[in-house]
Amino acid sequence: MRAFWIYKCNNKNEEYQRTWGDWAEVFDSTKAKGWGSTSIVAELAQAKIRDMVIAYQTDRNELVGVARVVGWRPQGRYKRLVVKPIRRIGVRVRPLKESNAKVARIPALQPGRIGTLYSVSRADAHTLLRAAGLRLAENANEPSDNAERSVQGAGFGTPERNKLVEREAVRHIKRHFRRQGWSVTDVSSENRGYDLLCKRPGERSHVEVKGARGEGQQFILTARELDTWTKDKQFVLAFVGSALSAKPSLSFFPSAAAQREFELRPLSFIARRQPNPDIQTSARKSRRHRNGASSAG
Prior knowledge:
alpha+beta, ph1033 like fold, Trna Endonuclease, Chain: A, domain 1, six-stranded mixed sheet, 13 strands
């Protein structure tokens, strides 16, 4: 069975650091990349090919993504670890620890001696990634590419739980805007492509609210909502992470330009059969032939 690791990096280059770097260099590409050498971090030698690496950028408090160990590059009597990005996450760790007691108890995330590579149990790896909105495929130990499963990991589940998350997310966003001096009207039943009409003197915002149980920023977006986000200059997408917790996180994505921060993937399609003139003509000829044969008999 492959192992799981939390691999911490820091880009500050402080005196106490053995090495420094930014996981963004790895996850800005889909290609395998050498990352870390046993000449500096001896414990990297513990990692085996096919092990899963959870990338943690400590100076940004960011869970950057998940990578797989795919090989080693020789460096004299040392070797360089080669990892391949599997999925980018981009979620802050501190809110995950504050909202999930199981995440807070993971040994690698506890205060203490500063290290680089931390062994993490399979159960703790699943707990951490689920809290961040990512679910591992059971048969491969890798993040699932199934879009619906990914969305469930972001905080969607049963219809009842979905409604509860949505209701709480809307409540948090209403409270936020009202505290900022906006009047807030719920127009979600009017099919406008957004949920809340927010106004204050000289300003107007059309706010679509999305929520999740975890911190992973992925959600279902309807075609109408996407069209409104693209065309409506007053549109704001408001996301509430950990919507059911005592300390939810709020993020706002105004204007169509913010779409560049998301990967959009279709979850379903409408299939409508189109008339085929060739098939219809053939069917009519067949019927005429049968009718003619019947008359001749």
